[in-house]
């Protein structure tokens, strides 16, 4: 059986464990610093397995040693964004948490592939790669699947079309400057721009960019967890089943799209080696301008990280 360890057993980590257990993909370890909490959630989830007829081992722990031999490490640990808090406010605290999670788990699972979810996402994925010294193929950030799913949901709400017929691609940094590619998105092959009136499409794009903040403001104490956790499960499944699935992920850029030495949301093929390759779209001038603006925002946060943490 494959093994997936989730670092951070809060709402997102525990929900990721739920989605993964239902898929019967791997045995699962939930790790958290809070005593009893990961153990309790793991036991509760384990007791649900007979009901859903899945044979999965689920363990909760406060000890990184429990993660030994993991195929995939999912890092969700960190403080959640609160109303009025920018992603960058999270930087120093979450850098300390993610840095420790990355280096400690690597000791026990030197061959693992890392999926990073903690915000600010692109920067935390960069930190994980640098702290572990792993090749870029084995450290991937989850963002684009979530952002694209939000856009697909909003298009479905607007049009009444099944989400299965809606293909949307949101690239760029995971923040307010993300890049929804309306030209490349479609409904059953019909370009989105031809199906949805321009003003409605503009509203969908704006709502997609603010999708995380909308949920933070509604919840008041916490941030989104169902959809981000489902996105992590989709990535883990694509890797473990060697599906060569192309989805938007945060990947380390080595000249692709003209970007270097940073994580950025691009179409990535996911397979058993992690990131199998990056797919490059031909962008028009408007899309390039959006890309550059988003890259500048990510780089700003990355520079802030480098001034706080030695990497």
Please provide a written account of the structure.
45% of the residues lie in helices and 21% in strands. The chain is of the alpha/beta class and 311 residues long. It folds into two domains: 2-141, 3-Layer(aba) Sandwich (Rossmann fold), CATH 3.40.50.720; 144-308, L-2-Hydroxyisocaproate Dehydrogenase, Chain A, domain 2 (Alpha-Beta Complex), CATH 3.90.110.10. The protein has a six-stranded parallel β-sheet with strand order 3-2-1-4-5-6, sandwiched between helices. It has a three-stranded antiparallel β-sheet with strand order 7-10-11. The protein has a three-stranded antiparallel β-sheet with strand order 12-13-14. β12 and β13 (260-271) form a beta hairpin. α3 runs parallel beside α4 (121-132). The longest helix is centred in the last third of the chain and has 24 residues, at 285-308. The chain is globular and about 50 Å long. The two termini are 35 Å apart.
TL;DR?
This protein is α/β, with parallel strands linked by helices and 311 residues long. It has helices at 11-23, 37-52, 91-108, 121-132, 144-159, 192-195, 198-209, 211-219, 226-240, 285-308; strands spanning 2-7, 26-31, 58-61, 72-75, 113-116, 139-141, 166-167, 170-171, 179-180, 186-187, 190-191, 245-254, 260-271, 274-278.
